[in-house]
Amino acid sequence: MTTTVAPTSAASAPPGKSAGKSGRPKAAKLFRMLPLSPAIGLMLVFLAGPIIYCLYAAFTNMALTGTGAANVKFVGLDNFRKAFGSGAFTNAIWLTLVFTLISAIIGQNTLGLGLSLLMRRSTKVVRNFVGTAVIGAWVLPEVVAAYLLSAFFNDEGTLNVMLHAVGLPGQDWLYAAPIIAVSLANIWRGTAFSMLVYSAALSEVPKEIEESAEMDGASGYRRLLFVTLPMISRAVMTNLMLITLQTLSVFGLIYAMTRGGPGTKSQTLPLYMYEQAFSFSQIGYGTAIALVMLAIGAVFSLIYLRGLNSEAA
Amino acid sequence: MIARDRISKVVGNLVLLAIGVLFVLPLLWVLFASINRTAGLRVEFPTHPTLGNFKAVLNTDTTYRPVLNGIVLCGGAALLTMICAVLAAYPLSRFKSKFNRPFLLTVLFCTGLPITAVMVPVYGLFVQLNLVDTLGGTIMFMATASLPFAIWLTKTFMDGVPISLEEAAWVDGAGNMQALARIVLPLMWPGIAVVLIFTFIGMWGNFFVPFMLLLSPERLPASVSIFTFFGQYGEPNYGQLAAYSLIYTMPVLLLYLLLSKKLGGAFALGGAIKG
């Protein structure tokens, strides 16, 4: 299996046919782009469509029941005023930040990098065992992972059994520290992705460079910081962005573990949006929250694109 | 120096092993509970191991139909994704056009959008188009949601196939689609398989999309119907839940094993993603 990565920028498409026949009529050029149309069609209807719909509905009082159901009215920025004035919304924003910071940026990213660094110098048996365990957690369906970890963090669960064994007090983690529990669950489930990205990046760092740094007397820590990490900075950037974006939209894992509770102690933005739009039938308000999430995602996505572009230039 | 190297290697292996054990621990509960008739949330090896839980859930309503629905839904959506992605990747990878760069940037941008956030408007759209609770509509949406990433990965794999062979075919008068089907696809099938399998695995585990777009119990895939174990009547039957979880997980585990035996497993994916 080849993992060679060809140049990513479109500008580097092979010259071949196109260069030789640059004088072709416009129609023929359009014709050879035709295979793109199924993909473009689907994305226009099912991705661009909803986003445009979102831009409209977020400024209305649309609802499934009550006045907003009978006649949909334009309400300007009311939904956003309501959101930013509401304690539940700021709570959700805050929890989403904590969840993303702990589980993605600190947890998955650092653990994934650590694992891939350690795996380079480890024995084959150990490497295979750890790789299988970590990837296994990733391949498991979201809801199954959620049940496993609910049981793990439960009052009588494995974690408490282990804590009691070493004489530490246990507690029902899903009640005592729900956001920490779901963050750890997300680390368990998502670390494989970072590990794979970093393993691929590290496999392309020439051994000679690190060896020569070692000859020059650089310690392991300094070698990592000044030699290895700068060489995989592009992968770090890609990975951080992708896992941040994935983590922002985690729904099933938290929903199946805590339903956002107890109370609203683990109600991140996607769960808050779901509750408002469907449990309380406030579609207009729900789409306004969706728009806020889309905006956050768009900003991260643009930063990521800029990063890729400047690296490629 | 050599001794220090050896020590650091041993320590590294031990740390790795410890992390691996931590990743395996949560799995113990599901394994033990599935063969325990009176399982709770406590981790304990059953005194009388039994296959009763598996027997109890292996019936049409609980297991066969949801799993079949899942195969139709995720299989259909993954195939649709792959066909569209291969078709789209070909001109992007092979021809120079002013259109390529903006299109690829848009695709990359879309991979970043939180699909969860789109679900409320998608539900609205489905109501307008009368697509709520239809397998066809859900398949099309699931395919669209994974399309940006699939196009990106497929193009990366396709860029790795040298263009010289196609040039020979073009000279011999083959059309683009013929060249794609006869030359490019056979050369890049491992990449295609990697993208296809990971698309399927992602969809198989996806809970939110079918949860929102499908309503009738007889259309729900396994990822959603698992919630029926938590009925209105208090404590679920944990033993059966565990057995069902294992059965539901089996297809993706088998697919993943196939992938690792033949194609270098998930590490092939890492190579394509890292950019």
Automatic annotation (TrEMBL), chain A:
Biased amino acid composition, Low complexity: 1-22
Membrane topology term: Multi-pass membrane protein
Spans traversing the lipid bilayer: 39-59, 92-117, 129-153, 173-198, 240-258, 278-305
The keyword Transport is annotated on this UniProt entry: yes
Main location: membrane
Subcellular location: Cell membrane
Chain ranges of the ABC transmembrane type-1 domain: 94-304
Keyword set, alphabetical order: Cell membrane, Membrane, Transmembrane, Transmembrane helix, Transport
Gene3D superfamilies documented for this protein: MetI-like
One GO-annotated biological process of the protein: transmembrane transport
GO cellular component: plasma membrane
Cross-referenced PANTHER family: BLR7065 PROTEIN, SPERMIDINE_PUTRESCINE TRANSPORT SYSTEM PERMEASE PROTEIN
Family the UniProt entry places it in: Belongs to the binding-protein-dependent transport system permease family.
Protein's name in the database: Sugar ABC transporter permease
Source organism of this protein record: Kribbella capetownensis
UniProtKB/TrEMBL annotation, chain B:
Location in or out of the cell: Cell membrane
Pfam families: BPD_transp_1 (PF00528)
Keyword annotations: Cell membrane, Membrane, Transmembrane, Transmembrane helix, Transport
Family: Belongs to the binding-protein-dependent transport system permease family.
GO annotations of cellular component type: plasma membrane
Superkingdom of the source species: Bacteria
Membrane topology: Multi-pass membrane protein
TM region(s), chain numbering: 12-35, 67-90, 102-123, 135-154, 187-209, 241-259
Keyword Acyltransferase attached: no
Domain ABC transmembrane type-1: 67-259
Protein name: Carbohydrate ABC transporter permease
Lineage: Bacteria, Bacillati, Actinomycetota, Actinomycetes, Propionibacteriales
GO BP annotations, alphabetical order: transmembrane transport
Gene3D superfamilies reported in the protein's UniProt record: MetI-like
UniProt source species: Kribbella capetownensis
